[in-house]
From TrEMBL:
Function according to Swiss-Prot or TrEMBL: Activation of anaerobic ribonucleoside-triphosphate reductase under anaerobic conditions by generation of an organic free radical, using S-adenosylmethionine and reduced flavodoxin as cosubstrates to produce 5'-deoxy-adenosine.
The protein, known as: Anaerobic ribonucleoside-triphosphate reductase-activating protein
Taxonomic superkingdom: Bacteria
Keywords, alphabetical: 4Fe-4S, Iron, Iron-sulfur, Metal-binding, Oxidoreductase, S-adenosyl-L-methionine
Organism: Staphylococcus gallinarum
Cofactor: [4Fe-4S] cluster
GO molecular function: 4 iron, 4 sulfur cluster binding; [formate-C-acetyltransferase]-activating enzyme activity; metal ion binding; ribonucleoside-diphosphate reductase activity, thioredoxin disulfide as acceptor
Record-linked NCBIfam families: NrdG
């Protein structure tokens, strides 16, 4: 099966970090989904490439994630992987419940090996997830473009994208970090 056709993973979460200071701006709850077909050389989370790594995602895990996001000092939810857009059975459900509970008072960041343009113009289910998030860090990790001092990304090819501005203006709007 092609990576382009892989929509739903096996429903596993590799790791949950209740308080992360590196996966986006502010203090965030970070979830790492299991399963990534890109298998980027030098991936920092190689174990999460396995679609059955970690614990099964279920109602209790979802509630745990939402409770971690509830305190006022938590700025939002970050979803990494694995590949979030190849695990829509988990990520789309989580993002929808997050938006139900918190509206737009907190932000959602997602890291993906897919490019924004592909997600915006491709599979409608992937587009639905894209439409619900604030920031997308896109592009596969490339070892030869790695730099240790890049904010929120690992290699120079990756972009930090303001998703809502990009969709509204119908052109890519990079998010400026300070």
């Amino acid at each position: 099966m092609s990576v382009l056709n892989l929509i739903n993973g096996q429903g596993y979460i590799a790791r949950i970090e209740a308080q992360s200071f590196v996966d986006g701006e502010g203090v965030r709850c970070s979830i790492y989904v299991s399963g990534c077909p890109f298998a980027c050389k030098g991936c920092y989370n190689e174990a999460a490439q396995n679609f059955r790594y970690g614990e099964k995602f279920n109602d209790e895990v979802l509630e745990e994630i939402l409770e971690y996001c509830a305190p006022d000092y938590i700025n939002g939810l970050s979803i990494l992987g694995g590949e979030p857009f190849c695990n829509l059975d988990t990520t789309l459900r989580c993002v929808r419940e997050f938006r139900k509970r918190f509206g737009n008072s907190k932000t959602i960041w997602i890291w993906s090996g897919f490019l924004f343009e592909y997600l915006a113009n491709g599979n409608p289910e992937r587009r639905r997830l894209l439409e619900l998030i604030d920031i997308l860090v896109d592009g596969p990790f490339m070892t030869h473009l790695y730099r240790s001092n890049l904010p929120y990304k690992g290699s120079l090819n990756q972009r930090i994208i303001d998703v809502q501005a990009s969709l509204t203006q119908q052109q890519l709007c990079e998010y400026i970090t300070y």
